[in-house]
Amino acid sequence: MTTVSLTVNGKAVSANVDPRTLLVQLLRENLRLTGTHVGCDTSQCGACVVHLDGKAVKSCTTLAVAVDGASVTTIEGLAHDGTLHPMQEAFREHHGLQCGFCTPGMIMAAVDMVNRRGHQLDEKTIREDLDGNICRCTGYHNIVKAIAAGAEAMGKGAAPVRQAAE
Ligand code: FES
Ligand code: FES
Asked: Is 43 in the pocket of ligand 1 (CB under 6 A)?
């Protein structure tokens, strides 16, 4: 077993893990943060997307030992003091989900998209950038609308995602 120490959603945590443990297992099984989902386990669907040092990664293909000392944000870390992150609010407002299974990964990927590509995102840009995230329910139309609205709302003053230990 190996000890992994990292910051998750602003809190310092550590866990003893098998060296083969994946980041998504560390989050779901050791830390009980079950908002991060596993849809395929082969880096296809994006249900497992989290932010690693501020950038989106697929946690189903990231080793837990590789994130020692890093800062991870999961879907549980986006809301602040009971207020949804603007991207979460936009998904709710525009009905960007049906079963919700893909939604945590979609939202984490969407926030990363805004961080990389800015607050004015057209439909083509969103659809292209979202190619690593699969939804089996919605047909994507409302997801695209939600991301465009969430991106704009983030530009009007979203709280930054926490990175440092509290
Ligand atoms: S579970 Fe990670 S990409 Fe599907
Ligand atoms: S809302 Fe069901 S998989 Fe996307």
From this structure: yes
Q: Which residues of 72-103 are buried (b: 16+ CB within 10 A; e: fewer)?
A: bbbbbbbeeeeeebbbbbbbebbebbeeebbb
Q: What is the position in ligand 1's atom list of the atom closest to the CA of 49?
A: 2
What confidence tens digit (pLDDT) does each residue in 13-29 have? 999 999 999 999 999 99
For a ligand 2 pocket test, name from 38, 45, 94, 137 the mutation site with the most ligand atoms within 8 angstroms of its C-beta. 137
Regarding the domain with residue range 86-158, which homologous superfamily does it belong to in the CATH classification? Answer: [2Fe-2S]-binding domain (1.10.150.120)
Q: End-to-end CA distance of the chain: give it in Å, rounded.
A: 27
Whether the model clears a pTM of 0.85, i.e. scores above it, the answer is yes
Pick the atom of ligand 1 nearest to 46's CA. 3
Q: How far is the CA of 39 from the centre of ligand 1 (A)?
A: 5
- 110: tokens are 């969407």
CB distance 3 to 14 below 8 Å: yes
Provide the residue ranges of all domains of the chain, joining segments of one domain with +: 2-76, 86-158
**CATH code for the part of the protein at 2-76:** 3.10.20.30
Which residues contact ligand 2 via a Cβ below 6 A? Answer: 97-103, 135-138
pLDDT of residue 41: 87
